[in-house]
Amino acid sequence: MKKIIAFTEGDGVGKEVIPEGIKILKIIDEYTDFEFEFKEAPAGGAVWKKHGESLPEKSFETIKNSDALLFGAIGIPGLPQGVAEIAILNIRQGLDLYVNLRPIKLYEPLRDRCPLRDEFIGDGIDIYFVRENTEGLYKNIGYLKENEAQNIMHYTREGCERIIKFAFEFAKRKGHKKVTSVDKANILKPSQLWRKIFHDIGSKYPNIKIEDIYIDAFCQWLIRTPYAYQTVVTGNMFGDIISDEAAFLIGSLGMASSGNIHPNKVSMYEPIHGSAPDIAGKNIANPIGTILSVKLMMEESFQSKIGNEIENAVEEGLKEGRTIDIENPNLKTLSTKEMGDLISEKLRNKLKK
Ligand code: NAI
Ligand code: MG
Q1: Does this chain's domain 1-98+263-353 share its CATH topology with 115-250?
Q2: Does residue 54 have its Cβ closer than 6 Å to ligand 1?
Q3: What SS3 state is found at 95?
Q4: Architecture of the CATH domain 115-250
Q5: Nearest alpha-carbon partner for 136 in 149, 150, 119, 154
Q6: Catalytic site residue 96?
């Protein structure tokens, strides 16, 4: 199967982690029926400095004509607010990537890096956040004046239905027994529409339990009983914030992956961290968020089961060496490249068989 993979390294650590993701794809290419062709689609702060726009038309064309996009991170300190980051919104809106899928899984070897005590970790943390990715406050309806500013939280029935349906279909596919919806229906009108649609759609899945939780309460439940959640579906802003909080439960922001998805269309996969200017250029960033984004790409865009092998390779790698953000005094501390090499080696051994 021939697939065109567009890739954007972006700024800062994006340039260091994306090559590690591509390494994984090249191994898959070598040992399976997949054949990948890589096409660079430059975007971000450095590109803005040079061309005055952070997502040149040509890059967007490359992305549009690919089968999937692997995206690093963008943003450079000192640039006007948002000029680089707008590229991400433009890709999400331009490709109508209405699903933001963010897995939060605590790998056994990283229990020592989880900030929660053992009793709160329970049977483990393995949550999929399904965040609405095109509506709500991030639709960018509003204005900024000297003494006043506004953004409108706008949701449509169609927008709510498609994301909630995705969440239930996803839960069904994963064999999850429960879908949790996080909203603020006691205050916000869009949440009241959302909740009604959630119940309507949920009633069509008799084997899946449904649950509603208010966002503020959920923030504490996520810390108190993280083991209790499987698929969690929520709106754009709540999903942005809550999934970053959740990312720290798995040891580091550098571990968390994501997919910006429109099922059966070009979708974008990226680690959830930013360009991390504080550590950029040092070859110490954790590449696992990117590697796990490749896993998501294989599963969600290419319906491949190889994701399990990637995940096992990551888990094995974590028992031998760690980047500095998840370091363990009993294990080797590795650079970005060394961590990527270690996981690649593990994956290669699995696929060779
Ligand atoms: P950040 O995610 O870049 O960094 C937050 C903290 O996490 C820093 O201490 C950083 O060193 C650490 N960190 C991040 N990725 C890591 C990794 N792979 N391994 C180890 N440690 C890691 O967030 P921050 O500092 O708020 O933003 C920096 C820039 O990135 C800004 O310009 C921001 O707008 C942009 N950004 C871009 C995103 C994207 O491209 N999708 C997402 C979030 C932020
Ligand atoms: Mg965020």
Answers
A1: yes
A2: no
A3: coil
A4: 3-Layer(aba) Sandwich (3.40)
A5: 154
A6: no
Calculate ∠ Cα 103-98-302, nearest 5°: 60
Pocket test for ligand 1, best of 88, 273, 284, 318 (most atoms within 8 A of CB): 273
Specify the pTM.
0.95
> 243 in helix, strand or coil?
helix
**By alpha-carbon position, which residue is closest to atom 4 of ligand 1?**
276
- Answer yes or no: is the C-beta of 13 below 6 A from any ligand 1 atom: yes
Q: Which of 347, 269, 251 is nearest to 306 (CA)?
A: 347
Write the pLDDT tens digit of every residue in 308-336: 999 999 999 999 999 999 999 999 999 99
Domain ranges of the chain: 1-98+263-353, 115-250
In sequence order, the β-bridge partners of residue 210 are 179
> Which numbered ligand comes closest to the C-alpha of 14?
1
- Whether domain 1-98+263-353 has CATH 3.40.718.10: the reply is yes
